[in-house]
Amino acid sequence: MTHTRLSSYSRDGLIFDVSDSGPLDGPTVVLLHGFPANRHSFDDVVPILNAAGIRTLVPDQRGYSDRARPRRRRDYRSTDLQRDVLELVNAAGQGRVHLVGHDWGGALAWQLGSSAPERLTGITVLSTPHPAAMVRSLFRSAQGLRSLYVLVFQVPLIPEAILRRRLARLLRRMGLNRTVAARYGEFMRKGNRLFGALSWYRGMWLPDGRAPRERAVQVRTTYIWGNRDQALGRCAAELSGRFVRAPYRFVELDENHWLPENAPERVAREIIVDVSR
Question: What is the strand order of the sheet 221-226 is part of?
Answer without folding.
Answer: 8-11, 14-21, 55-59, 28-32, 97-102, 120-126, 221-226, 248-253
